[in-house]
Amino acid sequence: MSQNRQSHILNAASSLLGICFVLITGLKISGASDSTLLDEVAMASAVGFVASCLFSFASMLQLRTPINYELIADFLFVLSMLCLFAAVLMFGRSLL
């Protein structure tokens, strides 16, 4: 696939990883992480974004393997986005 698409996945995943870290840190500081599953869901999302970054970088190396690293990075990125969306919904529900 194109080099441009791979770098977009890498940039977006690394930015959203930072958002996950801010969310997790805020929950730990406020003490809300003990009573909800929100930090676990955000951590699962963060792990997915890290894996997406790694597979996106591996696809930029253009290794001669039968493994399609870009497809794996895309799948992990979408899965992590869904986890982050679930975390945001849980956070919004906890405010109500």
Give the SSE map:
Blueprint: H1 3-30, H2 38-60, H3 69-95
Helix pairs in contact: 1-2, 1-3, 2-3
Provide an overview of this structure:
This protein is mainly α and 96 residues long. The chain has three helices and no strands. It has helices at residues 3-30, 38-60, 69-95. The radius of gyration is 15 Å and the shape is elongated.
- Low-pLDDT windows of residues: none
Shape: elongated
* Structure annotation, total helices: 3
Query: What gyration radius follows from the Cα positions, in whole Å?
Result: 15 Å
Per DSSP, what share of the residues sits in E-state strands of 2 or more residues? under 5%
- Mean residue pLDDT: 86
List the helices and strands in order. Answer: HHH
| DSSP strand tally | 0
Short characterization:
By secondary structure, the chain is mainly alpha-helical. It contains three helices and no strands.
Name some characteristics of this structure.
3 helices, 96 residues, mainly alpha
